[in-house]
From TrEMBL:
This is TrgA family protein. InterPro entries: TrgA (IPR047784). It comes from Szabonella alba. Residues 1-25 form the signal peptide. The keyword Signal applies. The keyword Transmembrane applies. The chain crosses the membrane at residues 33-52, 73-93, 117-137. Keywords: Membrane, Signal, Transmembrane, Transmembrane helix.
Amino acid sequence: MPTFSKLIAAVAFAAVALFSAQAFMAAHPDGVQYGQFLPFSTLIGLLCGWRIMGRATGQGYGAALGSGVKTSAMIVVWALIVFSIVLMVRKAFRKRYDGPMEAVVDIFALALEQVQLMLNAPFLLTLLIGGLLGGLISEWARRRWE
């Protein structure tokens, strides 16, 4: 059921994902091609905000803080899954694997490489502060309009 608080949560966490993706890109060396990284990251944030944070509103501001951080963490998990699979498919089309199992196992290695790049203060602070603010804004919208 669409509600205004779900819409606010979706928009808030789309912004969190966008700013986090920009912080992630800033940690990489210059010259890296990102393609559709920002739009897909924003879409993942939008979906997580709607599905995860949007459902968690209405339980108070304390719970909203925790749900906001959880939503930020789920954005990272889904982004890792999606982008690791995309990287694997690109490598597969270049015939870098000897078989399908090697490609599937490489998804986890690619995700681990990305996690190591995520371990920087600007990225983590953007996720944490954005998650807290997104949770509070979503809860406020729930109380204000429903």
